[in-house]
């Protein structure tokens, strides 16, 4: 016979999956659940803790325990695909809002990375199912892609356009950190200030090893997870 807290965990999970407890709403208090299930509060606390550990529930001060939205798993394998392709393959919709796109002088750091003095800087806010998900700034060599200024990257794929110019992204190196959202990013991504963000630095090269892309991406921590597949 399974432990009572596991049965309660499973029943709560069924109610979350069915929408009885909707995403973003609070579930009953520990005292209310203990009364409903005819068990002690420590038993309820164990069941809830399991769901919190799974990212299905989240405890918030002054509000209670809320149902979390399912996280979008961003899989990193040996196949390089665009943000839109990755999201559409998982059955979700994607949208892109271009916040800025301009030519500018490269900083010393970016000169070293992209090996050029002038760059195009593309700043985008990307959405999944109409919810802001990632803030990304992409730098690309201006001498290779000066005509990109005529393109609308709210509709065009950067990776597709690189391929059309005979500079497809053939390899990407990514560096991951976890940081806290500042006031500006919290507002853009519709999260709380100091909430965790996945912070990626991405370095893309074409088949000849020419640097094509340097991107800085900040993903919401509450709606994303990342799976890395390594092959020998």
Automatic annotation (TrEMBL):
<dbReference type="InterPro" id="IPR028978">
    <property type="entry name" value="Chorismate_lyase_/UTRA_dom_sf"/>
</dbReference>
<keyword id="KW-0805">Transcription regulation</keyword>
<keyword id="KW-0804">Transcription</keyword>
<dbReference type="InterPro" id="IPR011663">
    <property type="entry name" value="UTRA"/>
</dbReference>
<keyword id="KW-0238">DNA-binding</keyword>
<feature type="domain" description="HTH gntR-type">
    <location>
        <begin position="2"/>
        <end position="70"/>
    </location>
</feature>
<dbReference type="InterPro" id="IPR036390">
    <property type="entry name" value="WH_DNA-bd_sf"/>
</dbReference>
<dbReference type="InterPro" id="IPR036388">
    <property type="entry name" value="WH-like_DNA-bd_sf"/>
</dbReference>
<dbReference type="InterPro" id="IPR000524">
    <property type="entry name" value="Tscrpt_reg_HTH_GntR"/>
</dbReference>
<dbReference type="Pfam" id="PF07702">
    <property type="entry name" value="UTRA"/>
</dbReference>
<dbReference type="Pfam" id="PF00392">
    <property type="entry name" value="GntR"/>
</dbReference>
<protein>
    <submittedName>
        <fullName>GntR family transcriptional regulator</fullName>
    </submittedName>
</protein>
<dbReference type="InterPro" id="IPR050679">
    <property type="entry name" value="Bact_HTH_transcr_reg"/>
</dbReference>
